[in-house]
């Protein structure tokens, strides 16, 4: 009898964990629809989504982590989950941050998002989130640099496409980069023609 009851408890817990996981996946899907609102101020009517940003942050972070000799998977996870809270409270540009304590809201949302997840997942996500927010470890600094660098890369692409106000982002954002790799990459991006890579591919295929 005890064995059967135990199986029922385990089965129920497993089902609840899977339901919580599915809910998280659905929330992550909302990020494909939420736009990065800061670009509206620069006159860009249809900017990239939060999911677009997070995906490329993870790729940049993964690459940078190897050059900076830190755990690439930790950096990649931090980059991927950094904006997960925006599934519930949307993206808020800097003017909004001036009036609203968005950081506290981010923490409350994230806490609720992971509350019912499998304990191993919850614990790891929480640890990585705290590490990122504290900005004390090399991995967290690399992840933050990846976030800034993705914004700079996106700004350069918008600028090259004719959105000249996007260039304003080049003035202050680079000053926040901390790693040698991020600074070197920004130096490359700043003089890079964002259409050249695909033009070279087309030329090669001809």
What does this structure look like?
- With 206 residues, the chain is mostly helical.
- It has helices spanning 2-30, 38-41, 50-68, 72-81, 86-89, 94-99, 102-114, 119-134, 138-160, 169-172, 180-190, 196-205.
- The chain has a single domain (2-195), classed as Hypothetical protein af1432 (Orthogonal Bundle).
- The chain is globular and about 55 Å long.
Shape: globular
* Main sheet: strands, sense, barrel: none
The number of helical segments is 12
- Can you tell me the number of structural domains? 1
CATH architecture: Orthogonal Bundle
What proportion of the residues form beta strands (DSSP E)?
under 5%
Q: What distance separates the N and C termini?
A: 73 Å
Taken in chain order, the helices and strands follow as: HHHHHHHHHHHH
How does the helix and strand content classify structurally?
mainly alpha
What is the CATH superfamily label?
Hypothetical protein af1432
Q: Low-confidence spans: pLDDT under 50, at least 5 residues?
A: none
């Amino acid at each position: 009898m005890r064995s059967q009851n135990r199986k029922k408890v385990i089965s129920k817990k497993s089902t609840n964990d899977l339901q919580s996981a599915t809910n998280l996946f659905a929330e992550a899907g909302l990020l494909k629809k939420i736009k990065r609102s800061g670009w509206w101020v620069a006159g860009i009517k249809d900017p990239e989504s939060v999911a677009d940003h997070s995906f490329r942050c993870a790729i940049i972070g993964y690459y940078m982590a190897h050059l900076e000799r830190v755990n690439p998977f930790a950096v990649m996870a931090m980059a991927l989950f950094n904006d997960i809270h925006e599934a519930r409270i949307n993206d808020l540009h800097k003017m909004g941050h001036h009036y609203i304590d968005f950081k506290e809201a981010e923490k409350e949302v994230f806490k609720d998002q992971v509350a019912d997840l499998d304990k191993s997942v919850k614990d790891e996500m929480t640890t990585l989130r705290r590490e990122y927010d504290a900005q004390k470890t090399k991995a967290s600094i690399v992840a933050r640099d990846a976030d800034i660098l993705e914004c700079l890369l996106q700004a350069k692409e918008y600028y090259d496409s004719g959105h000249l106000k996007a260039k304003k982002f080049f003035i202050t954002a680079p000053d926040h980069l901390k790693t040698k790799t991020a600074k070197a990459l920004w130096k490359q991006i700043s003089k890079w023609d964002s259409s050249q890579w695909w033009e070279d591919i087309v030329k090669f295929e001809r």
